[in-house]
Amino acid sequence: MTAPSTGAAAPAEREPAPGAAYRRRGWWRDETFLDDLYRQARERPHKLAIAGRRIAESRTDTLDFAELAALTDRFALALIELGVRRGDFVAVQLPNRWEMVPLMFACMRVGAVICPISPICPEEELRHRFGLTGARVCVTLPEWSGTPLAEIATRLKGELPTLEHVLVVDGPVPEGALSFHERFVATAREERPEAAGTLADRSALAADEPFVVLFTSGTTGESKGVLHSQNTVHSAVRGYVEAFGLGDDWVAAVSTPLVHYSGFAQGVLAGVMLGGTVAFQDVRKNEALLDLVERYRATLLYGPPATLADVVASQRTEKRDTGTLRHVVIGSAPVLAELADEVHAALGARTYSLWGMSENGPVTMTRPTDPADWAAHSNGRAIDAMETRVDSEGAAGGVGRLRVRGASLALGYYRREEVFAAEFGADGWFDTGDLARDDGRGGIRIIGRARDAIVRDGVVAPMTELEAVIGSHPKAVEAALVGLPGAADAAPGGTPGGASDGTSAGASAAGATAGATAGQGTVICAVVVPDAGSEDGGPSLDEVRAHLLAAGQDPRFLPDRVELLPALPKTLTGKVRKVELRQRYGPVPAARH
């Protein structure tokens, strides 16, 4: 189905006409996710809603829908007692812990906007997020991976006039902070006689109001706060569950953080909307994910390729019962045919590919009706509520900038409205910043980020696929490709240095933004993280090239140079900071005299 035109660029100008059309089609609604929760608590009160595994403590915290609804009211009353007003922001800096879930719904209940933040967020970025949103409350941990989170948040409370309360979950509470357990958990406020009246006096968030701000990776500067309503998220979540035919028997094992869109929406909110179950772990331990699959009879497993590769290896070492698993969904990177085959052989489930971003959630995905191996060739077609367009402008291979429009687009960037508006063309299409091509079946295949594009012989290199293949080398864990200025050796079967100038059709398709490279002087550099078990320290240039050729990759895009690095520099959302790699391995600027 084709979504209606979104009209002019600015978010305010895209309303109200599109919203009315979205409601007619069922993509937007008047009900909310909070309504879904209370409905599930009435209809299936004792069904398991969430299971949060605590790896270090060797225990799992569980909540059924009745318990989740009761804790939502309890947490809402605690927020009201702290002075949280309608429209305030509540920052939650937690790993995948059960406390995150009732906090999500409690914020909806009191009319607050939740701001999920990763526990690995650096102090300077945390200051930026608190300052931008004017967060009144922060819920955090005493420490995470050696970083004193509670101390940092409490210190920032002294700097920022809007931040009034820091609540600490478990462990010691520094001076100036409060115990989350004492304020939120220990007292059954919802059972007090006055509780019903207190909640009745505070209206919950409506479906079209802002309810969450999700921060982008910040690869090119300060991160942006993507503001969503429950309806912009509902349209994406609905499309996601309908694409796979999911119902109330759905049990998801989610490996991604609950502070990111995939865990927050495709995990928790989808589960509550369906009346299904969501299981997760508080730390990354991929080899243990199948314990969740077996214990809770999971039907869907979601994660990036590296996670699924670890899961497959774990199954070979210690076989678990995965007979209930029907869908293995991979986002954030291409699905390689080899991995899809391994998943099916080890787990008995089919692999699906998905593309999306914080600004619009899951937009495209392969489907059960596609050919069995289609995930290795495509990122799928758009959900009904969204529309995609590739502006190839006649470029070789049909590669061009990917644009989208529809009901799942965010309300905007919080307090950065002009930046969000600038991403829209005059016809109302949003520029994703990605390069893609048509997959031949009405869907798309992501090539890479436009600003990182490399062009040779007028053709844009399939960056994401090349990186995935290199990362699958037995001596590698992951890899990133960058284009560097310099004299490239002749790649087998290709033209030395690539295209003769930077004005080819391929370069036009790439948008030739900062970081995109084309022309005689381009060196393709593969930065590889070697496998710890590799005796000789990682793959050589010849081994990387041979591996790519064996995978059927175009010879013109074989790397000219390989560098080994213990870990790739990444943003909080896991994106590689390629600008850092270009600075690290590019030429040293000439000294000024």
UniProtKB/TrEMBL annotation:
GO biological process, one term: fatty acid metabolic process
Ranges for domain AMP-dependent synthetase/ligase: 38-414
Matches recorded under Gene3D superfamilies: 3.30.300.30, N-terminal domain of ligase-like
Listed GO MF terms: medium-chain fatty acid-CoA ligase activity
InterPro entries found in the cross-reference section: AMP-bd_C_sf, AMP-binding_CS, AMP-dep_synth/lig_dom, ANL_N_sf
Keywords tagged on the record: Ligase
A Pfam entry, by short name: AMP-binding
Homology family: Belongs to the ATP-dependent AMP-binding enzyme family.
Name the UniProt record assigns to this protein: Acyl--CoA ligase
The organism of origin for this protein: Streptomyces showdoensis
